[in-house]
Model the fold of this input.
Amino acid sequence: MKYTIVIIFIFIAIIIAIAFNLKKRSLYNQLVEYAASKHFKEFDELIDTKMSRFLFNPFSIDYLKLNKEILANDTKAIDKMFTSITGHRLNLKQKQEIYSKGFNYYIGIENYAKAKEFLDLVHTLNNAQMDREMDRIYDIYALKGYKYLDEILEETSEMPDTYKGVNEFLISLMYENKGDKKKAAEYRKLSEKHLALLDNKIAKKMKEDNKKAE
Done:
């Protein structure tokens, strides 16, 4: 009898956990759908419900709101959400996600002062790869520099053509910064050519995966 009661309680706990996860996934998918389809009013109403705050922790709530504001292109609201979300106690993975997202966002809108704030935060993570990638981007876009030109040229020469496109675009920008319009145009064309190769490879892979799934 004792073991029967234990088994019943375990079974009930499993059912509750499954129901909880299904509801959480359903709510998350609905929020993403509202944001992606630009139904921002519906998004705001749903995420502020008691159910949302019960199912999602404060970081997840703010992260969802941040992505919604980025889709809405509301710069003031985005600034507010970045301030709020960096105020949470973040684990390492969350810090990497938020700091890199903030850096890339502010680089994209050419707010280089804010980008530098997030670059400084990235430097606190002791992640050599992130430091290297973002230091390059900051130098090229914010400082209009080209000090990484030789390094990226050498790195790109050892890559397969399919994966050279992004680096070649950066090389083009560095030549522009340097004032060498001829080389900038040359690498811009190479970038377009090799990015097209990558697009074709991705499209082919997706087509093959779809066939396997049928």
